[in-house]
Amino acid sequence: MKEQATNGVIVGLGAVALGLVSLLWLYGTRYPLHHDLAGGLNTAALAVQLGPAFDSYNSYFPPSERLWYSLAVMLGAMTGVGTAGANVALTTLAVLISAGLATLIRRRTTGGAGPFFFGLSFLVLLAIPALYKNIFGLREHLVVLGLWPYLVLRAAPPEDQKIGAGLRVALGLWMGGTLLFKYFYAIVVFLIEVADALIQRRIGPLFRAENLIAAAVVALYLGLWLLADPAQRAAIGAMRSSIGANLLPFDTAFAIARPWLVAAIVAVVLARLSGAGWRIILLGLVAVLGAMAVTWLQQRWYTHHLFPILMAFIGWWWMLGARLKLWVHPIAAAAALFAIEDQYSRNNWYVARVAEVSEAIEAAGLDLDGKRVGVLTMHPSPYN
Fold first, then answer.
1. Which residues form a coiled coil (predicted)?
2. Phi, psi (rounded to 5 degrees) for 297
3. What is the mean pLDDT of residues 272-296?
4. Cβ(223)–Cβ(211) under 8 Å?
């Protein structure tokens, strides 16, 4: 037993080391930070520098993002690794927490959670966001980190979901805290809970401790942020106006959604052909449809809005697991790899544009390190 535990620690540490080294290589040699993430970090840097005067320059910066990104700015300055490096480290820590919590829940429910489960969870939650259009550390990534241990719990048979009050509280706080980055994804949790209650024909599961705690965290956040401050509601209106040109009409949105809907139908058929039970099929289907509903609600269908849909499919694949016939797994793997590789290839365009700007600055003999750069923009936030 002691030797097994030691081997488990070695495997876990190996997964963490491999992930960190890969990220350092990727962001040190190939990737710039995603432009949305870089914008948030730049806004946080301005907030840290200006303090209370920041509100005179910025009309929209949700408290959750301000706190998280400001922490990266301050840690980067304190440690000397820089804002980008500190943010990568913080996000990696969040991945570690998510994988660790999922492993503990898995062990307390089905008992089938060893070092392999932890290592695979950690690497999947770390690598796929980086490869899928470079969205590592974006809000959608952080939300997925909160939902992963929740899905691990829901995937367990109802009779095995007795994990103890302490672990439920930890899950509720973690899930609620990550949902603050994009509270719309609470819809996914709500739909899964309603589906599970209908499947079990019991309303009690809706009121599990983790659900109530997560809902309370989100409700308190929205109440303090929006309901108590009319200026914040006005800022959201200004923000929506600024992105109005990017909202897609129904026909365009449906054309983007159609392949995902077809994939969901195919997944149901393959699962049934494999003999999987309806509960696990429906829970995975609801997770996918819920992620799609949130994407549709945002009306822009950016790549990072599609990422939670992909992760819902991957989570569904894992939930079905051994219930699938062996020949189904290569199909699922090929579909996931195709989606990831497609976005990885498209990211080359952004990498080339960043390199083009950097090369132009160097060719002009300019050095911007440590200097203030002003940008004139009509965006509600000081970056565009």
1. none
2. -60, -35
3. 94
4. no
Please name the helix (run of DSSP H) or strand (run of DSSP E) that holds residue 362, with its range, or none: helix 328-363
pLDDT at 170: 95
| Residues 321, 206: Cα–Cα separation, whole Å | 25
CA distance 134 to 91: 13
Tell me how many degrees the CA angle 218-219-225 measures, rounded to the nearest 5. Answer: 90
The token pair at 199 is 């499947």
- CA–CA separation, 244 and 239 (whole Å): 9
Alpha helices, H only, 274-327: 278-298, 303-320
What was the pLDDT predicted at 378? Answer: 62
Distance, CA of 193 to CA of 210 (rounded, Å): 11
Give which of 358, 242, 220 is closest to 300, Cα–Cα.
242
- Say if CB 200 and CB 158 are below 8 A apart: yes
Q: What tokens were used for 248?
A: 């897609």
Sign of CA dihedral 250, 251, 253, 258: positive
Query: Phi/psi at 110 (nearest 5 deg)?
Result: -85, -15
Per-residue pLDDT tens digits for 200-244:
888 877 888 999 999 999 999 999 888 877 777 777 777 777 676
Place of tokens 């940008």: 375
- What's the predicted TM-score (pTM) here? 0.90
Cα gap 211→34, rounded to integer Å = 32
- Transcribe 43-97 into DSSP letters: HHHHHHHHGGGGGGT-S---HHHHHHHHHHHHHHHHHSSHHHHHHHHHHHHHHHH
How many residues can be counted in the chain?
384
What per-residue confidence (pLDDT) applies to 384? 43
